[in-house]
Amino acid sequence: MAVDHRAETVVVAETNAGERLDRTLAVAIADLSRSRLKALILGGEVTIGGRTVRDPGHRVNAGDTVTVVLPPPEPATPAGEAIPLDILFEDEELIVIDKPRGMVVHPAAGKTTGTLVNALIAHCGESLSGIGGVRRPGIVHRLDKDTTGVMVVAKTDRAHAKLAAQFADHGRTGPLERGYLAFVWGVPDRPRGTIDQPIDRHPHARDKMAVRAGGREAITHWEVLERYAGVDGKPVASLLACRLETGRTHQIRVHLAHAGHPLIGDSVYGPGFRTKVARLAPEAAAAVEALGRQALHAYLLAIEHPVTGQSLEFRLELPGDLARLRTYLGAQIAQGPKPVRKGHVKSRT
User: Fold this and answer.
1) Which residues are catalytic?
2) Structural domains of the chain, ranges and CATH numbers in brackets
3) Count of alpha carbons within 13 Å of 136, Cβ hemisphere only?
């Protein structure tokens, strides 16, 4: 393969004869995703023997000389904004952050500024290599606006493609691991378990999700870390460690509410449990009322670096509001808890 600054040239090997054009190029040019290559083909930027080919499904022949012209990335959209970021790790391929409460990940209707994407465009600048032909960060997973914790974002096309594959696999065969700490109402009747219930759009509220037959597969593993008693001495709340085997919208919130243990502070999926605040000691009740969000924190993310192959693990302590909640709830612990491990960031070998 001969490469210059504006184009890449691939000579089709005998073993690739008869393959689709987009598949052949995706294997030969690892720095570009298949979707990006497809867009280049459709845009007339790919030639075979000097002849433009606009069909991604075109079957190549052995010895074909395929040239891919790479236009310079378009300016970033939306505009970058100088929003402070708590960066846990960064190199030329990816960036890992501690997302604060109240920050929307991606611009959408009604929210086009102040998002994580706006902040990353400003922070990364020219280091963004042009994912999909536009200078923008590659979002491979999301946290809800008011969920805090660790997130990884791709800075290059190749990192985006490989990280997306890890998240699509959900850690079933690869190194990906996602862990959350969830404060919930009530105490499960066993120490650990799995919720395997499909999730789809709520039939009557389009901004909500729900457990529904025929929905997308959704699996959440959980374990009780701490149990908390109310002023009457009876269990009223608990702290769960949750591990995702799939990544559906609002998955933990929907699954735990379906199981009868909605997240403390979740006004969307647990409004009927607000009366339980009356069972808490005054300090704990005040901590709940002050939350203004669901008590959910992404404390663990383990990935394989998309380029170096190094195993990376990131752990975060509870943020201030949830740490206070835990302190006041823990003043009256119903049963002996497991301690929550302190946060750290490390490289796994």
Assistant:
1) 144
2) 2-69 (3.10.290.10), 87-169 (3.30.2350.10), 177-348 (3.30.2350.10)
3) 20
